[in-house]
């Protein structure tokens, strides 16, 4: 087992830091249905952490617990060394956790630029009065944040669609805009719920490159759910495997690949 | 040919974020302002002021207000008439209670009081959405009208139950009361309209506007990126009610002069302003103006053509007017649900390419 305070070095030589977020014995129930049962794992600073599992394993529920949509009945979420009290999703966002959704959740009536600018809202503090007169802090803040957003737009190569209404974009680009919006918030922890769902091979390659670049250039910690095993094994530093709400494996991609429980969960077991 | 952004380069984010990024738009806007301030006041007469310009300007403020709440923040409200009544009665109480203070300050304070009332009635919006919220605001409409009828303190215990605007002046020019000149009425409304539109535009292009639109487009996603839904909705209610309160105060003090609350600020007023923003275009400041102009001008135009031009009986013309306005609203909802503002946008897109097809 890894020590809580010290990091480790990955196979490709990246330094991974201490624990950023720790899930302690999380149990989540919907009435009689147990969606997550007594799961513990940690996410370390700077790493790419994947959560995988067959359909209905509770991966998305886990992400929703992290981002504050669901409140677990038991267990604790330790974030940056402190136990997190019960929080609303917007408060979680203000603490520096951003996410994308499995089925895109963009603001269809706004342009790409405005959508990405919404990612900066947690950083915009000017008063209503100052905004109304477009004077002093409001304008300075708008321009400063615009500069940062333009860097994200450059980074994800969506400059050409900056002023296009999001509703007109194809699926692959929408996914990228959603990633841009999450990145614009400069999150400490970025949650990606199936970032490659419904993409073709080229789009998946692009997306994988962006995820690696984000981690590399900004040092952002990323937790992602993905079904494409090739992608997961290539991208992630450590993998949590879930099945029927329970954790059945945790470790580097190689460890997980050779774990008998994981193989059974994915391929099935013969009952003879 | 004229309408191009070609050669119009923005070199800073400040330039790129301005209201009229295309030079031609900007000049057109200055031209409209110049005519509104420099020409119309000198040629306006009582008929044009009372039938067209003053109601258009006042309804434009109300439409901007409702558009912020419904068009930008996605919260349907049927309480506009009630909130206008709050503005009117607040203005009346302030005018009679503090006769020495300027009417301009009274109107702005009336907006502030209406904003507070609006926030109060906006509280349920966190829990209820869509049609149910519309019904809740409908309750506000009926409650407020009932309140102003029932409590004599609001109309200073006058025998008729009406409120009458006393004579007040700005810089020595009378702007309320029966002796007001047409151009003075027009000018005070114009100044308020320009200020309100400018503030509304600033708010909607900045952080607040993005918070509202995020809530409108997808409230769950808005919450996940850190927008406090209650805060965003309540600021929308406050700002919206502020404008609607100003509109109500002007409607009473400058336009009508004497008001009986059920008649002037009934449910019909709520629907009228709602029609304005639907026809004009939800989520557009220009649409608020277009819708207000449409709903004010169309009856005047029809009356002039049918009664004045064709010599038909007045009652026949009045009934035809209802049918035509109703029919046009239905047609608009089917043909162009995004309103006149969308038509305007499409025209501009076409103009950018004209005379070439692509």
TrEMBL record, chain A:
Keywords: ATP-binding, Hydrolase, Nucleotide-binding, Transport. It holds the Pfam family ABC_tran. CDD domains: ABC_Mj1267_LivG_branched. Residues 21-269 form the ABC transporter domain. Its EC number is 3.6.3.-. GO terms for molecular function: ATP binding; ATP hydrolysis activity. GO terms for cellular component: plasma membrane. Signal peptide: none annotated. Gene3D superfamilies: P-loop containing nucleotide triphosphate hydrolases. It is an enzyme of class 3 (hydrolase). This is Lipopolysaccharide export system ATP-binding protein LptB. It comes from Pseudoruegeria aquimaris. The lineage of its organism: Bacteria, Pseudomonadati, Pseudomonadota, Alphaproteobacteria, Rhodobacterales. The gene is lptB_5.
TrEMBL record, chain B:
GO terms for cellular component: plasma membrane. The chain crosses the membrane at residues 27-44, 50-69, 76-95, 101-123, 130-148, 237-259, 271-296, 316-335. Coiled coil: none annotated. It is found in: Cell membrane. It comes from the Bacteria. It is a multi-pass membrane protein. CDD domains: TM_PBP1_LivM_like. Its main location: membrane. One of its GO terms (molecular function) is branched-chain amino acid transmembrane transporter activity. InterPro entries: ABC_transp_permease, LivM-like. Keywords: Cell membrane, Membrane, Transmembrane, Transmembrane helix. The keyword Oxidoreductase does not apply. This is Leucine/isoleucine/valine transporter permease subunit. It comes from Pseudoruegeria aquimaris.
